[in-house]
Structure formats: C-alpha cells, structure tokens
Amino acid sequence: MKIIELHESVTASNDRDADALRKKMKDEGTLLINVMSSPGSGKTTLLSATINALKDEMKIGVMEADIDSAVDAERMEALGVESIQVHTDGMCHMDAGMTEEGLKSMKVDNDLVFLENVGNLICPAEFDTGAGKKVMILSVPEGDDKPLKYPLMFGESDVLVISKIDALPYFNFSLEACKKRAKQLNPAIQIFPVSAKTGEGMDAWISWLKEAVRTWKEEN
Amino acid sequence: MNQYEIFETKERVTADNDREADKVRSALTDRNVFLVNLMSSPGAGKTTTLVRTINALKDQYRIGVMEADVDSDVDAKTIAETGAKVIQLHTGGSCHMDADMTERGLEKMGFDDVDVVFLENVGNLVCPAEFDVGAAKKVMILSVPEGDDKPLKYPLMFKVSDVMIENKIDVAPIFDYDFDKAEQRARALNPKIQCFRLSSLKGDGFEAWVDWLHKEIEEWRKR
Question: Binning pLDDT at 50, 70 and 90, where does residue A220 land?
Fold first, then answer.
C-alpha cells in the first residue's frame, strides 16, 4: 500500500486550484467525492458497504486522508479496490493541492474516487478539494443538534448521510428535527438515512451515487 | 549559510501560544482558580458530562463554564439550567480555542467569582490538541460509538490529555467497542493517562471521575 506524506499547499487561492482540479477530473470522466464527518461517525464503514455494492459495475478508488496511521486504508485495500493513504502531517483538513498530489499516485481511469477526509466537522468544510460532490455523514449517536452547531458543513454539502440508524432506538435522536435543521441551512441538500450494518436505506444512497457518476460522465 | 530566512509559521504560532498559556496558568494559580480544558469529537457528550459533573460539585465550589462554539448557543442554555455561571464564546469559525481567547473569556467570567472553570472546547479531535489554553488539566472524551481505534487515528489528543473519559458505556452492547483495546492504545501514547468508563446520561461509573476531579481540585488549591 502506498502512503503519501502531504503538507499544506502554500497557495494564494485554494479555490482556483480546486476549480482546475475539478475540470481535470471532469475531462478524465472521474467523479471525485469528498466524504466528511466527525471522527467515528462511520465514514470507513459506509464506504466499505458502498464499495461492495458498486465495485462490480464501476472502477473505484479510495484516498484515505489521516493525520497519521493507515488503519482505514488497510480496510479499503481488503475490499480489492485501489486504495492510497495520505498523511496530512498534523493538518486538520485536505485542500485542493494536497488532493491533487494524492490523485497523482492513483490510476487515471477510475469512474469514482472517494476522498475520505480527516475526521472533523469544521475545517474540511472551509476547503474546496476540487471534488465533484461533497458528502457528509452524521451518525445518530452524535445528536440531532449538530446542524445548529456546525452550520457551515451542512451548508456546504450536497448530501447528508445519516448513519447508524440501527441505533435509533437507543438514542434521543429525531430524524425529522435533524432533517429540518439541515434543510434550513441548505434547502437543496439530499438526505439519506442509512445503516451500513443492517443495510437499511443503502439502496437509495447507492442509486443516488450511480446517477451522480452517470451524470458526471454524460455532461462531459 | 542560507541566503534567505526560513520562517516556520506554525511553530511560531504554537510557541507564542505556549507562552500565553503559561501566563494564563500563572494567573489562575495566583487566584486559586482550577481550569479544565474539556475536548472531544462533536457529539461525544461533553455537555451532558458537564451537566452531571457540575451537579455533583456545585455544593462545594463556585463553578463557571465557558462554552466555545463556532456558532450557536444551544449548549450554554443547557448548562445555565444547572445554576453555574456560563459564558458563550463564539470562535468566529475557528476550530479550536487558544490561550488568548481563553484569557479573554476568563476576564469576562471574572476570576474572583469562581473556584472551578470548565472550558468546553470546540468539538474537534485535531486542532484543540495543539493549543495549550493554560488549563490545570486536559480532559478528553471518547464515546463508545466512535470506536476503539481513535487513539490510532488522532494520537496527539490522547498524548496531551491527562484524562480519557470513555462515555456512553450504556450503549456498549450494541457497538463493537473493546474498552481494554482503547485503553491500551491510549496508554501506549501516554502511559500516565487516567481512564474512566462512564455513562453521563445514566450516571454509571460517574463517581470515580468526580472523586478524581475533587482530589485534583483540592491539590491545586493547596498549592
């Protein structure tokens, strides 16, 4: 497995780099998805289940961004998809330059690449990585008040996956309240309540992904 | 010799902050105020833990709470119900508290009105670990649903903390969380870290944590 050491790009404009990267990915027909969440909300578990559902239909790559360690990349590699680990050198988020650097180590013909960002609800929301879509995960144990406390993340994301819904009976979490708060910040946000463990709700999320990949390629 | 100067920006920022943190700590020592820096991921149960902790200590000490959030004041409202003195700090988008922000918060709070102050840091396992705020003790919460692998992925937080609270033990049966593994991983990074397994919601295991805190506060006040 490849481990790439990254440092924050010293660039005047992250947004400019992000736009350039997005265009390049579009030309290559690869949909890059920036997956963001708190630590432990289930990014890796959701990605594993998602990859298993899609890997026979399309070529998938995963870029695991962590401050340190390679635990997640090892799990991804076991699924049989291209997986690289990037280390952010203590940084709390990925930016466009770091993403581009990481992508250089991957094959170019993937249909779909997931960037699993550093577990953090704040900083990654501020940095466009050049991804075609931004997906955030909120897990049931974290609480339905999170849109109130981390509004930028909910405002920036195209999709909110509410994970660990199998744990709903054990937590005081209102799906309706959470959806309402997220929609208030971002009326266009798509919301998928899922449990990667039981498979509940996974179909709708997988269909959305397939459609997103198809549109990304068609609009070329 | 180098033809140009190399400026390590980040090092400079944290070194300045460390100096400022020492100043805060010495002001707190002079005034006999015990400051706890409470850190965790979003949704690990900082506020619930604080409410129960305040209720256990409020007859003995005058307690103040500084709620640091990017935005909103949902937590401050919850804390105010305990009768503790609360101030809400908005970090203006910043992902952590630093010593200077803490000092300003403490001035607003009034050093003379409190014996124990809890700083509820921004929900984040990365950035707050890098910034000393001048607290007497750093306490981090890891909740069971987050998983026992977190010390591997966010090592600095576990390295710098005096205490790891493993919260939400009441839901342990439905999650795949190994307490011994989590503690082994934390101790490998920080052999001195104290671990408490508890449920802030239900109260299980809470006594050991409050006893520890009580003992530390008394030791601080004797200095």
Answer: low
CATH number of B10-222: 3.40.50.300
Check CB contact of A126 with chain B, cutoff 8 Å.
yes
Collapsing DSSP to helix, strand or coil, A184 comes out as helix
Q: Do A148 and B74 make contact, defined as CB atoms within 8 angstroms?
A: yes
Is A71 an 8 Å CB contact of chain B? yes
Question: So where are chain B's domains?
Answer: 10-222
Q: Give the pLDDT of residue B2.
A: 44
Hey, are the CB atoms on A92 and B42 less than 8 Å from each other? no
- Mean pLDDT value across chain B: 93
- Tell me the shortest Cα–Cα distance from A104 to chain B, in angstroms: 24
Burial environment of residue A92 by CB neighbours within 10 A (0 to 12, 13 to 18, 19 or more): buried
- What are the boundaries of each domain within chain A? 2-7+14-139+201-218
CB contact under 8 A, B93 and A120: no
Region A185-189: mean pLDDT is 98
In Å, how far is B62's CA from the nearest CA of chain A?
28
pLDDT one-digit tens code per residue, B151-194: 999 999 999 999 999 999 999 999 999 999 999 999 999 999 99
Neighbour count for residue B70 (Cβ, 10 Å): 21
Fold of A2-7+14-139+201-218: Rossmann fold (3.40.50)
Confidence (pTM): 0.92
Q: Can you tell me the distance from the alpha carbon of B63 to that of B78, in angstroms, rounded to the nearest whole number? A: 15
Measured between CA atoms, how close is A170 to chain B, in angstroms? Answer: 7
Residues of chain A above pLDDT 90, percent: 82
